[in-house]
Amino acid sequence: MTKILVTILLFIGFSAFGQTIEGVSKPYSFHIAPEPHYCEKPKAPANIALENVKFEDANNNGIIEADEKCTLSFELSNLGKGHACQVKMNLTETGAAKSGIQLPPAEVLQELAPNERKKFSLVVQGTMKQTSGQTTLELSALEKNGFDADPVKINVTIQSFLEPKLEMVDSKFSSVTGSMQAGVSITLRAAIQNLGKGPAENVKVKIKLPEANVFLSTDEVIEIPSLKPGESKMLDFEFMANKRYDQPTVPCIITISEKYGKFGSTKTNEVSMNQKLSTPQMVEVKAKEIKTEVYAPVSLNSDVDKNLPVSKTQNPDAVAVVIGNQHYLKTKSVDYAGNDAASIKNYLVQVMGFREGNILYFNDASLDDFYTIFGREKQKGMLHDRVKPDLSDVFVYYSGHGAPDLGEGSESKGYIVPVGCNPNYVAQGGYSLETFYNNLERLPAKSLTVVLDACFSGEDLIQKASPMVIRTKYPEVKKAMVLASSKESQVSNWHVEQQHGLFTYFFLKAIQKKELSDKNRDGKLTLEEIYQFVSDQAEGVPYHSRLMYGSPREQNPMLIGSDKSRVFVDFGK
């Protein structure tokens, strides 16, 4: 028997290790597939984009409330010719102070093929510890080889936890006989009201009666799904006492609870035996006025970023440079430059027919970035290489700081200020406007349009302004048309409510509201018509700068160049 058992065990052991008839074990191998070659050494660039971003909160009031579940949905698309690999999608909260909401963990998409598009949704959870106010969420998509998507910023309103306060504010006993008697059905009508500033959910109202000789003929617990601040509900409980009940009163204990178990109350009402009661009637309880704060709904965009107009303009050979310098290292930030740049790019693609791949888009450009894009003095840059001679319309937009060379007095030159530049040494670390325009004028472009939401005064510590005003003569331009946000001695203000530069807001509004800006109604919006719209003394930038900041902060846009009748957008009739 022992030999047989050993033989069986040996057979099982050999079988488990793949023993063959010849007695040779089969080798087991584990193959780990390497990353695809296009992830390690891409042959073509990916071009990923975050699109159709939509934020929804559970009750659709546009506010992230405490303990509320919200959803951020979006699409990730690859518009490039190469594969996107290991795309890390993350939602973060910008700024040093955090609101206390709970953000989802990052998600990683291993691969996104060219022309492929995928949908995603991230959950943002409100918490009991969050604080009221506005915050900005940034949705990013970072690709392994650096082909990152342009981030999307979402401005949201957050409401801190508002406590409900549940009470029985009034009550009344009644019976069909008009008195409290043994064997007669008694109705207790209770008025339950939320006297707090926050909504109450999963409200439960429970009645407790004496255990002996008193019988409840309705449900012991009545549930109310929710009670808004100030809202009230009338609830009826019916009971009767038998003839063996020997106490002078019948105590009725009403306990109110809610979702959190903290903001309810308990109250006892008593009815005396043989007490005269009213016959059943309606109890009207006037709700006390509860004053609560009203918050603006969530906004992805300014009003100029919604309802973009439809145009017939298609410009596949056009090339653009869009720069938004917001986060400066050695001076104050330009709060809305990033918004400005993102909106300009959106209009270029959706309204003006630019191909997205033909837009050189930079957030927080360094001095090296300016050299790379526009070139050094009498040198060509990346923009020159993108231009098709006599075919490409070139559009350049900049929002950010600038400053004069303080060492040259009243005849100082102007400089665009890269994000790492010290404005006090702008001649050493800035990008000269003279070089900027000279290199642009040498481009073999069909047309050249420059839009600056900036001023060059050097007053870079002014609150709520993008100080960039030149006090000297403006660099001479021959081919270019330049639309500047302010005159030489003025600052360029911000439109805080719309979260844009004031000039950029009205520049985009001129395109969006073509029925107002296209004065001759020919369906073709010219640079002159845009200028007339933004510089209107009654409705445009000058009026609103005075309205918001007073006469000392007056702002008057400029249009420089000879081709003022150039059509900027063709809407068609």
Describe this structure in words.
There is one protein chain. The protein is α+β, with helices and mostly antiparallel strands. The chain folds into 4 domains: 2-38, no CATH class; 39-158, Immunoglobulin-like (Sandwich), CATH 2.60.40; 166-272, Immunoglobulin-like (Sandwich); 310-570, Rossmann fold (3-Layer(aba) Sandwich), CATH 3.40.50. Helices cover 16% and strands 32% of the residues. A 6-stranded mixed beta sheet has the order 18-17-19-23-24-28, with helices on both faces. Strands 2-8-7-4-5 form a 5-stranded mixed beta sheet, with no helix packed on it. Helix 3 (337-350) links the parallel strand 17 (319-324) and strand 18 (359-363). The termini are far apart. Residues 4-33, 281-300 and 460-465 have low confidence and may be disordered.
Give the SSE layout.
Elements: H1 2-16, H2 37-40, E1 48-57, E2 63-64, E3 69-78, E4 84-93, E5 107-112, E6 117-125, E7 133-142, E8 152-158, E9 166-175, E10 186-194, E11 200-208, E12 214-216, E13 221-227, E14 232-241, E15 249-257, E16 265-272, E17 319-324, H3 337-350, E18 359-363, H4 367-374, H5 382-386, E19 393-399, E20 402-404, E21 414-416, H6 426-429, E22 431-432, H7 433-441, E23 447-453, E24 480-484, E25 494-495, E26 500-501, H8 502-512, H9 514-517, E27 524-526, H10 527-534, H11 541-549, E28 558-560, E29 567-570
Parallel strand pairs: 2-8, 17-18, 17-19, 19-23, 23-24
Antiparallel strand pairs: 1-3, 3-6, 4-5, 4-7, 7-8, 9-10, 10-14, 11-13, 11-15, 12-14, 15-16, 20-21, 21-22, 24-28, 25-26, 27-29
